[in-house]
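Tutorial, part two.
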Amino acid sequence: MKLKYSDIKEFYSNNVSGHGIDHIERVLKNALKIAETEKCDVEVVRAAAVLHDIARHLDEKNLKGPCHAEKGAEMAREILEEYDYTKEQKDNIIHSIRVHRYSSKLKPETIEAGIIQDADRLDALGAIIVARVFCKCGEMNGVMHDPSITPSEYKGAANTKTAINHFYEKILKIKPETFNTSKGQELARERYEFTKKFLNQFLKEWNCKI
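Running the prediction step on this input gives:
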């Protein structure tokens, strides 16, 4: 028996700041799309995509708690015991979960882990991330933009001073050339350009230059 999305749906909530059920579905679809262009174990990719944010809700509840990627890898190890994967597949799934997080800056050691990284980071570019950033800003009663506050080194979305700063502190650093696969880079380029275009348009309108 292989892991199905419906098996772990209970762990996800659409209230988890852009990392709910909809995020998992998009990462899964993007991962499978990339997997079509690579020589890889699709079952590993599928399971890792479904499980990659299984501990994300713990980050949301406790910002100083354990890294959700590390904790998710631990949780996945227990969950996978109930399914028919080889030891190598299980280890690969767990590794893919452990290294997927952008802020951890960990390098994937398998093509499957690279695919999961790419699929997850695709959701941090383009129209989706614009919506996510401003939703998060609203949830935190944050500031949309303040030209007097300059971007700082990335310390996480919860610590950013303004929504616009978050794009410069994190989002624009997720450059297409940093993706692991050719397909990931291809998909990232269009989203990255959209994100830059949005920011340019926003700042022009903010400063009444158009």
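The radius of gyration is 18 Å. In part three we will examine how such features are distributed along the chain.
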